[in-house]
What we know:
Number of helices: 5
Largest sheet: none
Number of strands: 0
Low-confidence stretches: none
Oligomer: single chain
Strand content: under 5%
Radius of gyration: 24 Å
Amino acid sequence: MILSSYRADFWYAFLAATILVLGAAYTLWLVKRVIFGAVANDRVAKLEDLNPREFVVLGALALSVLALGLWPAPLLDAMRPTIEQLVHQMMTSKL
C-alpha cells in the first residue's frame, strides 16, 4: 500500500509510513503496559487464576481448535453442500 501511494504522491507515502510506525510503537507500548505493567486496581489484584473446571473447559476448546487446524476435513465435509449450492447460484446467470 505504501509503494502504491508513493506512485501517486510522495507525501501520501510518507504519511502512510509515519502512521504505520507510530501505530506499531503505540501497540508495543500498550502491550508493555497491559501485560507486563503493575496492577493498579485493588479489585483486579484480588482476582484469582483459573480454577480446575475453567482450565478443563478452556483446554478442551484449545484442543478442538488445534484439531480442526490440523485436520479440517470434518468441518469442510459438513460445509461442502452449502458451498456447492452457493457456487451454483453465483455461476448461474440471473438474466
